[in-house]
Write a structure and sequence with these properties.
binds inosinic acid, alpha/beta, 6-stranded mixed beta sheet, 172 residues, Rossmann fold
Amino acid sequence: MSYPELISREEIRKRVEELGQQITKDYAGEELVVVGVLKGSFVFCADLIRELNLPVHLEFMSVSSYEGTESTGNLKINLDISTNVEGKNVLLVEDIVDTGFTISTLSKLFKNKNPKSVKLATLLYKPARLEHKVDIDYLAFEIEDHFVIGYGLDFNGRFRELPYVGIYDGEV
Ligand code: IMP
């Protein structure tokens, strides 16, 4: 089995740097609560916050809506944030927007917490699979309908450690 490279380490590095500069500009003079959605976004989140020249408060949430490669349509919160985001700028950080279920559900949940603002940054977006309306504020890469792995993304818990985004071409 091979895992062909879709987006190289260098392409990711360059794009994350650009997004970091954009976010820094957009929130100039403000504080930011960055909420990484575990587990998939942990690598992107770690790289992205190091490109921010802002006061950042980092939180993580762990949710699951997936078994194998098909969405169950159920979002379970396994780990919640431990800070009050009322009146704060929240930036949700996702690995990939696929059907959009996870992030549209999380966005609604955060909007109900009376924050100053809620925005979304995602590494990847697969428009071919979208079923739920999602406003993406910061997108690194739009991709075709492939199941992808690496740079934090997994297939059944494997391949998160790959430094690039690859195509999983095994059986799904
Ligand atoms: P959504 O709720 O359908 O948008 O799914 C989002 C979640 O499904 C992501 O946060 C990933 O954890 C997982 N996911 C969707 N597509 C892929 C993929 O191609 N590779 C790895 N994980 C994926």
